[in-house]
Structures are given as structure tokens and as C-alpha cells.
Design a protein that fits this description.
The chain is an alpha+beta fold and 219 residues long. 23% of the residues lie in helices and 38% in strands. It contains four helices and eleven strands. A seven-stranded antiparallel beta sheet has the order 4-5-6-10-9-8-7. A four-stranded antiparallel beta sheet has the order 1-2-3-11, with no helix packed on it. The longest helix has 19 residues. The N terminus is likely disordered.
Length: 219
């Protein structure tokens, strides 16, 4: 049986050469979108993608029960669909130097019955194809400070989308639940200038507690 739940979004790119080129293009679009002017609309009629609800704290993706609670000092762009799946773009100006920023994209796709470990292994292959093995760290298994904490993975990168040797970043991956048949894969991708790696990485990790996995509402 195929993997229909992973046939779209990031996982499309992992299974074929043409696919990963699409994945790269979609991901770069997210990064560029994050670089645009970002401001959450204060209007009540803010247009949201299907399946996204505005909450008092931020945005809720109904299918995965993942809520992005808007973090202080981060600029958050209204969520947009990418290949029919939700995507968030955020920017943080670093406290020590406001000319330096961290650009973050958060994407969600159904796990399609794949275990998280296999998804992470495929993610590594794609990143190594894009940047080269020497620029991609190992997938470090860890407990991520989401709410509640979830087992996940961190992959450090020593290059960025500009491919100029002056950028770095990180990828966090985790699942919203323990059952791959119903859970969603969450991917947090951050990019920054290599010269500010220590501070930028710390600010990115501080963002993770703003990802809340809400309990499903009773029918």
C-alpha cells in the first residue's frame, strides 16, 4: 500500500528526485515569505485558510489540535496554505543586535502511518541532498519543550537557503500524537546568519513552548 498521507507537502520531495526539488522550492518560498513584512491582522475578519481558527492566544489548527500561541517579541504572519497544508512564518529580531533576525517557518502534514523515526531519516536525506552531508548534523533525539513536552528531533544546519556559507539554522521535528494514523508531523525550520548562531539558536528554542497540543474537544 502506498503512503497517501505523505504524498503531499514535504514528504512528496523525499520520495523522488523531482519531488525533492519541489520540496526545496516550496520550502524556499516559505523562507522568502518569512522575510516579507509580517504583522498579524487585528481585524476580526482576518482571512484564514480552511481548518485554521483564531483563538485568544493565537491560531489553532483543528485537525492536529496544534495551537500556535503568539510569542512576545516575534512578528507572526497570518497562516497560509502551502500545497493544501497550513504554514506559519515568524521573525524575531535578536535582542543584542536588531539588525540580525531569525526567520522561522512552521509546517504541518499528516504522518500517513509513517513512524516519526522514518520521517526524520527521510528528512536527513533531503537536507543532505540540498546542502551536502558535511553541512548537516545528526538527528538528535530529545524531549522538546512544547506544551506538553514531546519526544522529537533536532537537526543542526551549517548552511542556509542563500547557499553563501554565511547562514546556519536548525530543523525541529515532532509528532502531535503517538498514533501515526491520526497524528501530524510538525516541522520547525529556522534560519539565521552564522555569526549569531548561539543567540539565534537559543531564541528559536524559546519559541517551542508556544506550540501547544490541545486536547481534542468532546463532540
Amino acid at each position: 500500500m502506498g503512503r497517501p498521507g505523505i504524498a503531499m507537502g514535504d514528504r512528496t520531495g523525499i520520495r523522488s528526485g523531482a519531488g525533492w526539488r519541489w520540496w526545496t522550492g516550496a520550502w524556499l518560498i516559505l523562507v522568502l515569505a518569512a522575510g516579507c513584512s509580517m504583522a498579524v491582522s487585528a481585524q476580526e475578519n482576518e482571512k484564514l485558510p480552511p481548518g485554521i481558527r483564531k483563538t485568544e492566544a493565537g491560531y489553532l489548527h483543528v485537525a492536529s489540535n496544534l495551537e500556535l500561541q503568539l510569542p512576545r517579541d516575534w512578528q507572526v504572519k497570518s497562516p497560509e496554505p502551502v500545497q493544501n497544508f497550513p504554514a506559519f512564518s515568524l521573525r524575531r529580531r535578536l535582542p543584542s543586535n536588531e539588525k540580525e533576525t531569525v526567520e522561522v517557518s512552521i509546517t504541518l502534514v499528516p504522518m500517513g502511518e509513517l513512524p516519526l523515526s522514518e520521517i526524520v531519516a527521510e528528512e536527513l536525506k533531503v537536507l543532505q541532498l540540498i546542502y551536502g552531508e558535511k553541512q548537516v548534523g545528526n538527528a538528535e533525539e530529545m524531549e522538546l519543550p512544547t506544551q506538553p513536552p514531546r519526544k522529537g528531533y533536532r537537526i543542526e544546519l551549517r548552511d542556509g537557503p542563500s547557499r553563501n556559507g554565511r547562514e546556519a539554522g536548525v530543523v525541529y521535528l515532532f509528532a502531535t500524537g503517538d498514533d501515526p494514523k491520526s497524528a501530524w508531523r510538525v516541522r520547525v525550520r529556522a534560519v539565521w546568519n552564522r555569526s549569531v548562531t548561539k543567540e539565534a539558536a537559543a531564541e528559536t528554542e524559546k519559541l517551542l513552548p508556544h506550540l501547544h497540543i490541545a486536547k481534542p474537544q468532546s463532540p
